[in-house]
Structure formats: structure tokens, C-alpha cells
Amino acid sequence: MPRHIPSNNIQEFRAILHAAKHIIVVAGAGLSAASGIPTFRGAGGMWRSLDAMSLATPEAFAKDPSLVWQFYHYRREKALRAEPNAAHVALAKLSIPSVRASIAPSSKTFHLITQNVDGLSTRAARAVTTAQETPDASALLEMHGRLFDVRCTKCSHTTLDFSSPLCQALGDADRAHEDEVAAGKKETQISIPLEDLPKCSVCNSLTRPGVVWFGESIPLLPQLDKLVEQADLCLVVGTSSLVQPAASFAWQVQENGGRVAVFNVEDSLGTDTADFFFQGGCEIELPRALGMDDTA
Fold first, then answer.
1. What is the pTM of this model?
2. Which of 71, 90, 167, 245 could covalently link to 287 via disulfide, CB atoms 3.0 to 4.6 Å apart?
3. CATH node for 38-81+146-211
4. Is 164 annotated as a binding residue?
5. Does domain 1-36+85-144+217-295 have CATH number 3.40.50.1220?
6. Where in the chain is the domain with CATH 3.40.50.1220?
7. In which residues is Zn(2+) bound (predicted)?
8. Of 22, 111, 144, 177, which is the active-site residue?
């Protein structure tokens, strides 16, 4: 049986987009790669000589909250210095009803389901907001939480905090590590006492990053399941399709008779069954396919 080869014909894709009624986008780390946010997979999967993915668990935080907080503080600082790229902007524009009406005039719903926690999609929405055009805020679903949410481990009080540094001890640890890297020295582990880590403003207990770790339930999952069930077009943007449940969303759309278009730098899991595959940086291929490359 001959291997299925997905199309890269933009006109064919635009015809499908034009007729789609319920569109979802499933975005992963590759969406933010051009903004300088590490993917923490492959060559970028190490942090201070540690497997970054192994730090994103409740068990890792229970064992060493100092280490996990330093990892997430590093990510916070990277995200604060980053800017949304053209792919973020294109998706933000697609969430503006008047813009979407010209690109996907048959669409009744549009939702961006992002696995990213960096907040760049929210910032892109603010960047494209004008007095006449406002993105639909309900279109963005951050399924793995938000990097800048700080949640109490005791009372669950959560605040959105963009402070830099989040606390003095974490700022000092960041600077010490940067000095080591600049000097070419061997990285050393810094142990921050619990009392110096971020505390809850309500009960003064230890806080944690407000993200969904591996092994934790996803609060938005029931809503996401409904959106996937009704979708007739799924755009898979910058994800390796390895992390469940998001990895199965595109397959479910196809099982229900919908179409799938993948935008990624590499041929990854699920690409060979997609209807369309546009290979390259999302910041280039997505605006080009949507016809926004001249305005993004």
C-alpha cells in the first residue's frame, strides 16, 4: 500500500479553510520557538545539565521545590524578555471575527488550544487589538495553565504575577548561574531555603508555578473534548504530537470526518496521516498559508 503523502498546496488548504465551520488550533512549543522560548525537547531539553522534562512533575517539586522553582523562574524570565512572533500574531488575528470572516467565512467557532504556558498568545492578542477590532478572548484556551500564575500549595489562592524577579532569592540564583555560564565554569546547584521561596499573600504558605505538571489532571479537558468532537478542521502548529491528550486531538478530528493541517519544522508523529503538511518555521509557514504574510 503506497505511503500517504500530505498535500502542501496552499490553494487547496485555503479552500478547506474557507468552508470550515468549526476550527481548532492545537499549538505546541514550536509556536514560540522563533520568539526564543526553549522547547525543552531534543537539543534544547537540558537545563543546568538536568533533564528539564523531569522537573515538570509534582514529585520533583515535593522532593526539591528550590530546584523546580529555579527552573520555572528561568522560564519566566525568558518569557518576559520574549516577543510574540508572526505565528502568534496570525492566530490572534484569526480570533478577530471580522478578520476570520474574510479568511474562513463559513466558520461559526474558532479556538486556539495551546499547550504553551508562556503567555505570548495573550500578548499577541493585545498587540492586534484596536478600537475597531478585538480578538475573542474566549477563543484562547491555555490547557497547561499559565507560567505567570503563582498558586498556593495550601489554600490554592492564585495570583497573576509578572514580577521580575519573582523574589530576591530566585533572582540571585539566576544571576549566579548566568555568571557561571559566562565564565565557562561548571554549573553548581543552588539550594534556596523554603522560607526564601515565593509565599502566598493570603496564608504565607509555599507557592508553586500555576501550570499543569505531568501526572496532573487538566481542568479544561471536558471543554476541550467538546471542541474537538465538533471540529471539522484542526491546525496542528509547532507540536511533536507526543504529549497526551493533545497528541490525539487531530486524530479524533479526522475520525469524525474533519481535516488536519500540520505546520512544523520537522516530520513528526501524525504528519504522515495529515491532509496537509507545511514544513518550516511556524512564524513563516502559518501566516503564508493563511494569506497573512504581508500583514503579520
1. 0.92
2. 90
3. 3.30.1600.10
4. no
5. yes
6. 1-36+85-144+217-295
7. 152, 155, 200, 203
8. 144
